[in-house]
Amino acid sequence: MPNPKSALIIVDVQNDFCPGGKLAVPHGNEVVNPIEKMAVYALRHGWKIFASRDWHPEDTTHFSKYGGAWPEHCVQHTPGADFHHGLLRTKIMIILDLVTVISKGMRKDENAYSAFEGRDEHGKLLEERLKEYEVEKIYIAGLATDYCVKATALDAKRNNYETCLLLNACRAVNLELQDGEKAVEEMRQVGVIITSTDEILF
């Protein structure tokens, strides 16, 4: 059988979610190197690549200041919302239109954890783009395991994609000590394949 058409989804590897950011995920910067290698591999193999980002307005109900759960982060057009500076090859691919940016949380009244809630620059939902490319299999990496990565993986399974979590290219917030482990187990229970970039690349 031919290999299914695949896509790589890079979830929210932004400055505010990395050390020094406003809502830093512990060791969040450690996902950069494996993701960069995976992006090059994906490009060489003809996969579609998407990079999601939180892209919040200043006055969103997502923020604690306006009744939400989180401190201000990833406000549109601020340095904190930029993709991490280490994603050099990914940024070049974005400029060359080889990676599609998916923005989420843009309305003042939405949380939008999952990349499936985001849209590209033309207003198309991620799911629409995946259907256009006839994608069947999705690989997911990024931040954070117990929030946006998990939400994206669960939505991918709900939409009947074969879904793989690149565990070594993810990091968890772990507000509670085992939140990351619980998130991985939740994904596993619904059929997400837990793998790593090492298993794919070698």
Describe what this molecule looks like in 3D.
By secondary structure, this protein is an alpha/beta fold. The protein has a single domain (6-201), classed as Rossmann fold (3-Layer(aba) Sandwich). Helices cover 29% and strands 19% of the residues. The chain is built from six helices and six strands, in the order E-H-E-H-E-H-E-H-E-H-E-H. The protein has helices at 32-44, 88-95, 126-132, 145-158, 179-189, 197-201; strands at 6-11, 48-54, 99-104, 137-143, 162-171, 193-195. A six-stranded parallel beta sheet has the order 3-2-1-4-5-6, with helices on both faces. Helix 5 (179-189) links the parallel strand 5 and strand 6 (193-195). Helix 4 (145-158) runs parallel beside helix 5. The longest helix has 14 residues, at 145-158. The radius of gyration is 16 Å and the shape is globular. The model has no long low-confidence stretch (mean pLDDT 96).
- Backbone CA Rg: 16 Å
CATH topology: Rossmann fold
Helix content: 25-40%
How would you name the CATH homologous superfamily? Isochorismatase-like
Q: Using DSSP, what is the number of strands? A: 6
By CATH, the architecture is named 3-Layer(aba) Sandwich
How would you concisely characterize the structure shown here?
The protein is α/β, with parallel strands linked by helices and 202 residues long. The chain has one domain: Isochorismatase-like (Rossmann fold, 3-Layer(aba) Sandwich). It contains 6 helices and 6 strands; from the N terminus they run E-H-E-H-E-H-E-H-E-H-E-H.
